[in-house]
From TrEMBL:
<dbReference type="InterPro" id="IPR036390">
    <property type="entry name" value="WH_DNA-bd_sf"/>
</dbReference>
<dbReference type="GO" id="GO:0003700">
    <property type="term" value="F:DNA-binding transcription factor activity"/>
</dbReference>
<dbReference type="InterPro" id="IPR036271">
    <property type="entry name" value="Tet_transcr_reg_TetR-rel_C_sf"/>
</dbReference>
<feature type="domain" description="HTH gntR-type">
    <location>
        <begin position="1"/>
        <end position="68"/>
    </location>
</feature>
<protein>
    <submittedName>
        <fullName>GntR family transcriptional regulator</fullName>
    </submittedName>
</protein>
<dbReference type="Pfam" id="PF00392">
    <property type="entry name" value="GntR"/>
</dbReference>
<dbReference type="GO" id="GO:0045892">
    <property type="term" value="P:negative regulation of DNA-templated transcription"/>
</dbReference>
<dbReference type="InterPro" id="IPR004111">
    <property type="entry name" value="Repressor_TetR_C"/>
</dbReference>
<dbReference type="Pfam" id="PF00440">
    <property type="entry name" value="TetR_N"/>
</dbReference>
<dbReference type="InterPro" id="IPR036388">
    <property type="entry name" value="WH-like_DNA-bd_sf"/>
</dbReference>
<keyword id="KW-0804">Transcription</keyword>
<keyword id="KW-0805">Transcription regulation</keyword>
<keyword id="KW-0238">DNA-binding</keyword>
<dbReference type="InterPro" id="IPR050679">
    <property type="entry name" value="Bact_HTH_transcr_reg"/>
</dbReference>
<dbReference type="GO" id="GO:0003677">
    <property type="term" value="F:DNA binding"/>
</dbReference>
<dbReference type="InterPro" id="IPR009057">
    <property type="entry name" value="Homeodomain-like_sf"/>
</dbReference>
<feature type="domain" description="HTH tetR-type">
    <location>
        <begin position="76"/>
        <end position="136"/>
    </location>
</feature>
Length: 302
């Protein structure tokens, strides 16, 4: 996003002292001209810095760099503020864009100040993930059968991955993260699955399968975010450009070719939310059939 790049550049100049407290920041018009963007984009970059307390509007002077004490400073820095700022960066730009120096710059504090609260980026990411997983919980008194409760668990996790796409990128399912709030989601799912009456190993396998399904679909949320930022094309625009090159892929593949022809006629949108829901139903149908709960297969549940 262009406004983010402009804000990052100005933030860096402020942090390095190139723009000291009280110095006038380039105007919206100047930023738009220098970066080849619309006035609204430049204004959004300045608004972002204003929200962070790095700059302020000064009568008859335009926008100027705020005094350190007016930015909150290191004295106003807390672990919670550090974590929430890092989450905001990862939400907007992806986990790869996150750095300790970048978080410090966004907070308007010295580059080493965050290290008073965390040992480094790895610890910060764990704190971010724990905070993110803790944003949604479950009813104190569960209701419904195992399938209804597992559906609620899946949709709750999906909503968190939707809100924080980077969450799905953190690690393989074979190396679960030691996060207290992730454990709350695990307990909810395990309690529902335990009603199937399976042994501990099967219960663990089913939970891994369940979580892997939700995470596996969610992985594409951030990938699409990156693809959009890199190409500037929406999913539909990108697909329209690819259609002419699909011909060689269908040669000798009649079912593939027939499917594409029908989709061109009827129209088709690959919507991850819809795919998540249909896949979840299929997964739970399979579990119900495998473990003898045919009464709760979708379409048969009472």
């Amino acid at each position: 996003m262009k406004y983010v790049a402009i804000a990052d550049e100005l933030r860096g100049r402020i942090t390095r002292g190139e723009l000291p407290p009280g110095a006038r920041v380039p105007s919206t018009r100047r930023l738009a001209a220098d970066h080849g963007v619309a006035m609204a984009t430049a204004a959004k970059a300045l608004a972002q810095l204003s929200q962070e307390g790095l700059v302020r509007a000064e009568p008859r002077s335009g926008t100027v760099v705020a005094e350190p004490e007016r930015r909150g400073g290191q004295r106003g820095l807390t672990r919670e503020r550090l974590v929430r700022t890092a989450i905001a960066i990862a939400d907007a730009e992806g986990l790869a864009a996150l750095s300790m120096r970048g978080v410090a710059a966004r907070l308007g504090v010295a580059a080493m100040a965050p290290y008073r609260y965390v040992r480094g980026k790895d610890e910060l990411v764990l704190l971010m993930a724990d905070a993110a997983f803790g944003e949604r919980g479950y009813p104190a008194k569960p209701s419904g059968d195992w399938r209804e409760r597992l559906t609620l668990g899946a949709r709750t996790l999906w909503s968190l991955f939707r809100r924080h796409p980077w969450l799905a990128q953190l690690g393989p399912i074979t190396r679960p993260l030691p996060l207290r709030n992730l454990g709350l989601h695990g307990e909810w799912a395990l309690t529902a699955l335990s009603e199937l009456g399976v042994d501990a190993a099967t219960l663990c396998d089913l939970h891994v399968l369940f979580f892997s399904y939700v995470q596996g679909i969610a992985i594409h949320l951030e990938r699409e975010q990156h693809a959009l930022a890199a190409s500037g094309l929406s999913e539909d625009e990108w697909m329209d450009r690819q259609l002419p090159s699909m011909g060689p892929m269908t040669t000798g593949r009649p079912v593939f070719a027939k499917m594409l022809r029908e989709l061109e006629e009827t129209g088709y949108d690959l919507v991850l939310d819809d795919l998540f829901e249909s896949g979840l139903r299929a997964l739970l149908d399979g579990v119900a059939l495998r473990f003898g709960h045919r009464d709760v297969v979708s379409g048969k549940a009472g």
